[in-house]
Design a protein that fits this description.
mainly alpha
Length: about 190
């Protein structure tokens, strides 16, 4: 009864917060309610219609993966763009991936790198790694090994293992000086 009343209130008015709450509840199957991707997508869609950037991003994910709705990469791209333009860094990163993979959008390395850069500047760790790799490979941006290392190090310091591996490959630590302990001393005539 409480959930039905909550849903009725969410349906009746400008309630993107309640709608998002219901979407998460159905998406995760919380509070003793069954997991229901279709209902979750329905409520994400309701909140997204009010421009809620988190709802837009998650609804884009639903369309990208076919969770609760038919898979539609073009619709996912529209929703990710709307969320990204409202400042959602995860949507910026996902939109960059769609451009890179030509999913729902034409392949565009320059656009992909641009979205990765924006998300990286906002602290999205995966975007920091990916933007660093774009810089390293010259994919959509001019090659810049030093700047690539800056972004890869940021991602690595935030715990991204792939970025840490890339940094280790690109910037291996100095080998320690040789240890000559226990070696015979040079002969007096060789000094």
């Amino acid at each position: 009864v409480a959930l039905e009343d909550y849903a009725r209130r969410a349906q009746a008015a400008y309630e993107p917060g309640r709608q998002l709450c219901l979407a998460r509840l159905y998406g995760k199957g919380l509070e003793g309610n069954p997991h229901d991707d279709a209902r979750a997508a329905y409520w994400f869609d309701k909140a997204a219609r009010f421009g809620h950037r988190e709802a837009l991003k998650v609804l884009a994910f639903c369309h990208s993966t076919g969770r609760g709705v038919a898979r539609d990469d073009a619709r996912a791209a529209e929703l990710y763009r709307d969320s990204a333009e409202r400042g959602n860094r995860e949507a910026m990163y996902a939109l960059g991936d769609l451009y890179l993979e030509a999913r729902g959008l034409p392949e565009d390395d320059v656009a992909a790198a641009g979205w990765f850069r924006m998300a990286a500047h906002r602290g999205e760790v995966g975007a920091q790694r990916t933007y660093g790799l774009c810089l390293l490979e010259g994919k959509g941006v001019p090659k810049d090994r030093d700047e690539a290392l800056v972004w890869l190090r940021k991602a690595a310091s935030a715990g991204d293992q792939d970025a840490a591996a890339a940094v280790a490959d690109l910037d291996p630590p100095e080998p320690p000086p040789p240890d000559f302990t226990g070696w015979p001393s040079p002969s007096p005539g060789l000094q």
